[in-house]
Here is the input.
Amino acid sequence: VTKQASQPAVLGQPLTYTMVVTNLGAGLATQVSLMDTLPGAVTVASLPQNCQMTTLLQCNLGMLVSSGITTVTVVVTPTQAGLITNVVQVGAAQTEAITQNNVATARTRS
Here is the structure.
């Protein structure tokens, strides 16, 4: 997974996080999910239909074929000035040998 934030972040203005999930494995990935603990310094402005927000942003991405790519875009509004750090994690039903590429961080300053 990779994650980018629109730059620069402006207090009270939309900030877009774009997360790209790629299946780097040789086979089909099933029950692919994305989890994102949004920082307390933002409020959610818009989410994709396959995502829900409780204390954690959770998105059901379904299946990804080998080398398959899907993109999730979330729009938030910064509510506090300063550094905003956001971490996203993905997972699937299959066990993976390499999990380091399942986490990504985006940092921006408002």
Summary: The CA atoms of residues 29 and 64 lie 5 Å apart.
